[in-house]
Structures are given as C-alpha cells and as structure tokens.
Amino acid sequence: MAAEAAALDATPLERPAPREIALDEETRALVVPDAADLPASPPSAVEANFARYFIADFMNPGHDQYVYRHPNGLCVVGLAPAHVAFKEEGGITTVDFNVGKSDRSEMKVTGKRKRNAQHLQENSALCKVCVNDKSFVVRCCVKGSLLEINDRLIKQPDLLNTASLPLLGVIQPLA
C-alpha cells in the first residue's frame, strides 16, 4: 500500500494538452453562452413551438394569410398583418363563419376520432371578414379537417384589429 502511494506521489501532475483546453472552451461556450449574444427577451410560445408559413394570394393581391404548424401536425390559420382588411378604414366589423352550405360556427367536433369535423380543401372558404360594406373571403390554405374555430370573433370581431393576430381556425392536415 505504501509503495502505491509513493508511486502516485512520484508522478508529476500533467497539464492538459492544448487541444483539450480548446475543446473545453468550446464546450463551455456552448453550455454558458455570452450574455451579449442572448436575446433581450425569451421567444414567445408561437416563435418557440410553431413553424410559420406566409401564404401570399397571387390571384387577389393583398389577401395574404398565415399558417402556423405545430410539431404535432395541427395548423392554425389567420390573416397576415398585410391583409387588405386591416388597411381599410374603420377596421374589421364582422366575422361570418356561415359560408357556402354550412355554418362553420355550428360545428361541434367530439371524441378521439374527431367526429363531425368538416373536411376542407386548400381553397375552401373558412369564413368571411367584413369591413364596412366590403367582405373578404378567408381561405383554408391547408387540406384537412377543421377542428375548431375562434368563437370569440363572432361576438368580438374587433379582436382581429389588435396587434396580436388571433387565429381563425385550427386544422388537422390529412396525411
């Protein structure tokens, strides 16, 4: 036992190789970032959890929309900030989910298999947004099943005029 202790004491301490020092500094830089490189505020839930897509409408310039896609596959559809409805004087006055043959606001999806969900194509009308005497059709943009609409917009359409753009509908894309 004493011989082993003497052998340990006899070996000089080794310095780490320069490559190991560089690797350690790289690891430290990844684990403990420089405070100057950090953002002023943490990302919002939308920025952190959704892939954001901008849908430009080339047939009707200015009728642009957005689609936020969550990693679980659900898509959120809404009006892009550059949509012409926001540029009209007076702002959005009504949101009507009664388009075509069905009223999307009357739809009640239930169960694990999402019974009663309406199947929509990319160009299906999701709702109509009215500004004064003009109305703009909002398209689905995603082929899938409509699971939910924002009911609050029926009673409070001015929510669309706020800085944060609320969703119009939640869609589960078809596989």
UniProtKB/TrEMBL annotation:
InterPro entries xrefs: Abitram, Single_hybrid_motif
Name the UniProt record assigns to this protein: Protein Abitram
